[in-house]
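Reviewer comment 2.1 asked that we show a complete input and output for one of the modelled complexes. We chose the magnesium ion case, as it is the one discussed in the main text.
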Amino acid sequence: MHRDIDRILISQDKIAARVRELARDIIADHTPPKMLGEPEVTIVPILTGAMIFCCDLIRRIPFAMKIGLMTVSSYPGSSLRTQGSQIIGQQLGDVRGRHVVLCDDILDSGGTIRLVVPIIRELGAASVKVCVLLRKDRPEARDVHADYVGFEIPDEFVVGYGLDYNNYYRNLPDIVTLKQEAIDRH
Ligand code: IMP
Ligand code: MG
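Response of the prediction step:
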């Protein structure tokens, strides 16, 4: 697996430092004086890509929270570009009146966030915030709002730290680009 790496774009140390900062921002936005009293928060990782990011993030957030799950598929088959997002499973619990923080690995075309945010609002959440580890520089996604962004990256295909190619490479600890021969092989 490691010989498939072309280059390390963001090292695990940099990721860990930035995840701590994102947690601090989320804590600040969900505690007084920004909010009255103890808000009821539900964190929702968008699976499978946000799994590792969300696990690290929530362990830096000390207040009471519930976890909801949503599985969205945007890359059916082996593809480097989204084919359109669809929800293929959810286990959100009751989000009525709750402050929801959606967590995704990467904001690329923006299709996933455009799909999911209105659904959570319609379910009666008190607020919906979007937290993404990465945001790609894509013109068609410039109008898509994210409240917390870990890193802005160029429009390159990356894997690792939860991000996959054809469901491989999620367990790489750094965010990396792949050699062309690895992409061809999978
Ligand atoms: P969007 O719906 O186009 O914004 O894309 C979001 C989803 O596409 C992410 O949650 C990822 O699962 C996937 N994705 C987008 N870009 C990449 C990438 O560079 N590597 C791996 N997955 C990606
Ligand atoms: Mg994803």
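Strands lie at 5-10, 41-47, 65-67, 69-73, 86-91, 99-107, 127-136, 148-153, 175-178. We note this here for comparison with the apo prediction described in Section 3.2.
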